[in-house]
Specification:
Layout lengths: L2 H12 L7 H7 L4 H13 L5 E2 L5 E2 L9 H6 L3 H6 L2 E8 L2 H10 L6 E8 L17 E10 L9 H15 L5 E4 L3 E4 L2 E13 L2 E11 L4 H4 L9 H5 L6 H22 L5 H7 L6 E5 L4 E9 L5 E4 L5 E4 L5 E4 L2
The structure holds biotin.
């Protein structure tokens, strides 16, 4: 067994959160005690904290449902199975978006999905980083290829937001809402985010849609988040949610919505957006690349552009990934 396999086997045993003696572990892995110590150290490098027991064994502070490719695959719809070209799960990546963008450059077909237990360089919108501790969230990306010009992609990030919101609602998060263009909120606290990164290869457009959801963030790590936030553990209670189920449902919804987007763009989804939209009718401040404007949100148009009514009553449309929106109290 390689060191990585040893670490993964140890992690799978410890994931139940129970105490495991050294005797049990060396027998089950199987490994010499020195190799066990080494594997436990490697888990610390992943950001986990296996506690050493007096008898040389270990336990994790809390049980952890590890991402399991087979369980995720078993929860996929027929449609998702037909459209997915890969489904990969990693303990550690720098960024799932960066991983799939590199794949796109190597001409991987569309429909590639990857998930990571932890990201060391998780990317957020507007150059921010995304807090991604081991097992504490859902960090997932999907590569999709499109025919046509970049303009055909307008509204795509809102469509992805709808897919995420549907998933969360299906799991019991009744008050999930969307803040244009694609923040996932619960009672005005950030539950998740979406980062779309696009490029072209062999003359065709590709998009990597990255989704980050807070599942059970350790308080210490969450100190790095500079806005009100929430996680699914707080919303749904200690039992929380199965991340494997969450991943499968999310992939199913993404594939469904991308199919619809391919047929008719955002226009056919605008009505559903309105049901999740938290900013409509609210006074907001938009941060544009070189200016800021305030006004009342009047919804979105058929391309997903934000309609903002200024004090003189005129309504302007704003479209673009580099715009930040703050709902005024
Ligand atoms: C935001 O700032 O609101 C967007 C956050 C997007 C985070 C996700 S986590 C999975 C994927 N990989 C990344 O590096 N970022 C996205």
């Amino acid at each position: 067994m390689t060191n990585t396999e040893l670490e993964q086997t140890l992690l799978a045993i410890l994931a139940d959160g129970a105490e495991h003696s050294e005797r049990e572990l060396v027998e089950r892995l199987p490994a010499e005690p020195a190799a066990l110590t080494e594997a436990a150290r490697a888990l610390r490098d992943l950001g986990l904290e296996p506690r050493a027991l007096p008898d040389g064994g270990y336990r994790l502070a809390e049980p952890l449902e590890l991402l399991d490719r087979k369980r995720i695959a078993a929860g996929l719809s027929n449609d998702a199975r037909a459209r997915l070209s890969r489904l990969e799960v990693y303990p550690l990546l720098d960024s799932t978006n960066a991983y799939l963008l590199a794949g796109a450059a190597e001409e991987w077909p569309g429909g590639a999905v990857c998930l990571a237990e932890r990201q060391t360089a998780g990317r957020g919108r507007q150059g921010r980083s995304w807090v991604s501790p081991f097992g504490a969230g859902l960090f997932a990306s999907l590569l999709w290829r499109f025919d046509g010009q970049p303009a055909a992609l307008s509204g795509l990030s809102l469509a992805i937001g709808i897919a995420v919101a549907r998933t969360l609602r299906a799991l019991g998060v009744a008050e999930v809402g969307l803040k244009w263009p694609n923040d996932i909120l619960w009672r005005e606290r950030k539950l998740g985010g979406i980062l779309l990164e696009s490029g072209s290869s062999a003359g065709a457009l590709h998009v990597v849609a990255g989704i980050g959801l807070n599942v059970a963030l350790p308080r210490q790590e969450a100190l790095a988040i500079d806005q009100p936030w929430v996680d699914l553990r707080e919303i749904l209670g200690a039992e929380g949610v199965s991340r494997n189920r969450l991943a499968a449902l999310l992939i199913n919804e993404l594939v469904e919505i991308l199919g619809r987007f391919e047929q008719g763009g955002f226009a056919g989804l605008a009505g559903e957006w309105a049901r999740f939209d938290l900013s409509v009718g609210r006074r907001v401040r938009l941060r544009l690349p070189n200016a800021a404007v305030t006004g009342i949100v009047r919804g979105v148009d058929a391309s997903g552009a934000l309609l903002l009514e200024s004090t003189d009553g005129r309504v302007n449309a704003y479209l673009g990934g580099e715009i930040g929106l703050r709902i005024e109290p």
